């Protein structure tokens, strides 16, 4: 991410990236100066100009705002690979739709993937149509946990219960019935445990 930078520029760029990850916006010139012991915010300008010249950031002289433009930073995150049903199961086709960076919420993102929810069967658990669920791949989940299940090549998100006769895929919507799966059904398998939900607020 910081190839071609001096050691001090690398430190400043790392500070910028960490601040954006933690707060969602870059630090002010004053905060950068305080972090690195510069005499004044004006001392920050030369370092930021170098970062901009080398393609890592973009500055606005008028507002002193800056944007991180380094491609490796902008592309970090969890891949959104498709859509999952929260109602009647639908065919889940892997089709990367973008990147979702939420490591601060779910910890290590290695192996995680995101699915966009359709349907209303999980609204009682706070999972609404249009939300993104974050899934940690696993061949099984504990009985009663929310997970992504596959049946006949189709995917759905439900609370997954182990029963004596097989599996119960339980919706969180009183108007919907559970899906029962025989323990001998070879088409059934668990894709992973839901570890987070992300919602985009409409304004």
Describe the structure.
- The chain is elongated and about 70 Å long.
- Helix 1 crosses helix 3.
- By secondary structure, it is an alpha+beta fold.
- It has helices spanning 7-23, 29-36, 45-53, 71-74, 103-106; strands at residues 57-60, 65-68, 78-85, 90-91, 98-100, 113-118, 132-137, 145-151, 154-163, 166-170, 179-182, 189-198.
- It has two domains: 7-74, Winged helix-like DNA-binding domain superfamily/Winged helix DNA-binding domain (Arc Repressor Mutant, subunit A); 78-198, Umud Fragment, subunit A.
- The protein contains five helices and twelve strands.
- The mean pLDDT is 83.
Low-confidence stretches: none
Tally of individual domains: 2
The CATH architecture designation of the largest domain is Ribbon
Shape: elongated
The radius of gyration over CA amounts to 23 Å
Q: Care to give the gist of this entry?
A:
This protein has 203 residues and is of the alpha+beta class. Helices cover 21% and strands 34% of the residues.
Keywords:
203 residues; two-stranded antiparallel ribbon; 12 strands; Arc Repressor Mutant, subunit A; 5 helices; Umud Fragment, subunit A; alpha+beta; elongated; 2 domains; ten-stranded mixed sheet
């Amino acid at each position: 991410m910081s190839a071609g930078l001096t050691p001090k520029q690398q430190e400043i760029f790392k500070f910028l990236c960490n601040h954006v990850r933690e707060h969602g916006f870059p630090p002010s010139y004053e905060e950068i100066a305080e972090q690195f012991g510069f005499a004044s915010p004006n001392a920050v300008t030369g370092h930021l100009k170098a970062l901009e010249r080398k393609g890592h950031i973009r500055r606005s002289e008028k507002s002193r705002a800056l944007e991180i433009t380094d491609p490796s930073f902008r592309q970090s995150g969890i891949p959104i690979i498709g859509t999952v049903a929260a109602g009647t199961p639908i065919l889940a086709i892997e089709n990367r739709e973008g990147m979702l960076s939420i490591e601060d919420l779910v910890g290590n993102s290695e192996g995680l993937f995101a699915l966009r929810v359709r349907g209303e069967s999980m609204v009682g658990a706070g999972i609404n149509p249009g939300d993104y669920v974050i899934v940690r791949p696993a061949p099984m989940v504990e009985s009663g946990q929310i997970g992504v299940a596959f049946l006949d090549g189709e995917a759905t998100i439900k609370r997954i219960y182990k029963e004596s006769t097989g599996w119960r895929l339980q919706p969180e919507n009183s108007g919907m019935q559970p899906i029962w799966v025989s323990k001998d059904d070879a088409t059934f398998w668990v894709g992973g445990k839901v570890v987070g939900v992300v919602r985009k607020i409409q304004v």
